[in-house]
Specification:
0% strand, Ferritin, mainly alpha
């Protein structure tokens, strides 16, 4: 078994750009879902999704700043956004996206620290804490326990 390849600044920039594209995806999804989710049972979560959209924008700005700090260029295209007319589907799409985001930020924190970029890892820790709140909000709205996130 070979050791994993050592992280480089260039590779960290690539990974952060993937994270940035995922943040753009989240901004779009939360914006659309918050305005199109229907039903009395979803009124509170629709308001919460609108709040999430703003928080994801703040994350995107922070990630773009870290990419610039590393002398990279932030991407401008989001990951694809899944849509549905069913409220539960929208919430499940968001839950899965948050799960992927949390898993990736866990890796990114380790990678930043491997490079000695402790300030970047601190920024990512603040973001991941909020992403975990989003994850819990979505699981609560679906009436389920938080699914396990495998690294």
């Amino acid at each position: 078994m070979t050791a994993p390849a050592k992280i480089t600044r260039k590779k960290l920039i690539e990974f952060l750009n993937e994270d940035l594209a995922r943040e753009y995806q989240a901004i779009i999804a939360y914006t659309v879902y918050s305005q199109t989710i229907k039903g009395a049972a979803y009124t509170d979560i629709a308001r919460e999704l609108a709040v999430h959209a703003g928080e994801e924008l703040a994350h995107a700005l922070l990630i773009a700043k870290q990419i610039d700090y590393l002398n990279g260029s932030p991407v401008v295209v989001p990951k694809p956004v899944k849509v549905s007319e069913k409220a539960e589907d929208m919430l499940r799409f968001d839950l899965e996206n948050e799960k992927v985001t949390i898993r990736n930020y866990r890796q990114r924190i380790r990678q930043a620290e491997e490079l000695g970029e402790y300030a970047i890892s601190e920024v990512l820790r603040k973001i991941i804490a909020q992403e975990q709140e989003h994850f819990t909000d979505l699981a609560d709205a679906l009436g389920i326990d938080n699914p396990k996130i495998e690294d």
